[in-house]
Amino acid sequence: MANPDWARLLDEWDFSSAHAAWQQEFGASGDSLEGSWILAEIEERWGDSLFFGGQKGAAAHFHAALRALVPQSVQFTSLDESTRRMEAHARVMNKIYAIDGAGLARTSHDGRPHPNTRLAPPPEPAATLPDRADADGITIRPARKRQEKAILQLFGDGGHWQDHDLGQMWRNAGEALTPAFPEAARRAYAWSLLFFDLYSKAWSANLPASRWDSDGSQEMAEVQESIDALGPLNADVDCPVWIDSLVDGAWRKALAALAGERPPLELQPLAVLLARICRAAGDEESARFLTPKPAAGSQ
After folding, report:
1. Is 195 exposed, middle or buried (0-12, 13-18, 19+ CB in 10 A)?
2. Counting CB atoms within 10 angstroms of each CB, which of 1, 45, 53, 191 has the fewest?
3. Residue (of 194, 189, 98) closest to 138 by Cα position
4. Taking the CB of residue 111, how many other CB atoms lie within 10 A of it?
5. β-bridge partners, 133
């Protein structure tokens, strides 16, 4: 039996045409067991071509593969079907974890390609990041890993929805920082990915009960798109100490640097985030001070 068009096009690395052929073949039945399984293969192999080829953009395809593997409207009718999808889900998630803040595969990872992926010779090596950046595309701070651990311990095991909330709060902070302080925004987005990743892991661990909730893949894809849109690293913009400290996780230093001043209105998402951290640390007074006051006349 001849390969269907989408399979032939995949083998030719014509991924966009393979996707179009899949759409033509399955159309409205794309959420069926067969249709969603094939779509997951197309998206994963498309992502593999970028991930293993040293190029950006793999994350969006891997997240699309995850959505196809666990379609919300489909019931898995057999243990075998559920098992093969969960195995594929774990393989794709492992590659997502291996993508750094610059959208590239980390230099050391144990990601495995889709069984049908044919890896082509990698393209010319991408330009290396400036010395001032680490492999994640985030400005080097010697204490970052220690601060990251401290923040995680501060919030403890507050549940996966707390991780989701924190992922969104850091995302809001990144969006607020993007116009004036894109480098700080990049680091805020890295925190967002960290917490959405924790949420996604918990989601995977609680399948199938959690399948009706967001798996976190869409959120991570959107954050990654925001990181990609920031463009090259730029060291020319001076960042206020309190912002620089906060996005490094040094929240006490950030609080001290504010010196009793509230953040400006356009940076309220950072004030809300810092208040949440203060409250987790038991500093209710600072949390109340930082929490935005309702506008006059509002209920």
Report:
1. buried
2. 1
3. 189
4. 20
5. 139
Residues composing the chain: 299
Output DSSP code: residue 54.
T
Coil, strand or helix: which one is 151? helix
Instruction: Map 177-230 to HEC letters.
Output: HCCCCHHHHHHHHHHHHHHHHHHHHHHHHCCCCCCCCCCCHHHHHHHHHHHHHC
Question: Model pTM?
Answer: 0.55
Where exactly are the structural domains of the chain?
1-128, 130-299
Q: Provide the token pair at 3.
A: 């390969």
Question: What residues does 105 pair with on adjacent strands?
Answer: 99
**Tens-level pLDDT at each residue, the chain (299 residues):** 345 788 888 888 888 888 888 888 887 666 788 888 999 999 999 999 889 888 888 888 898 898 888 876 667 778 888 889 989 999 999 899 888 877 888 877 888 999 998 775 444 443 333 332 333 333 334 344 556 678 888 887 778 889 999 999 999 999 999 999 998 998 899 899 888 888 888 877 766 555 667 778 888 889 888 887 886 665 556 889 999 999 988 899 999 999 889 999 999 999 999 999 999 999 999 999 998 766 555 44
CA distance 234 to 205: 39
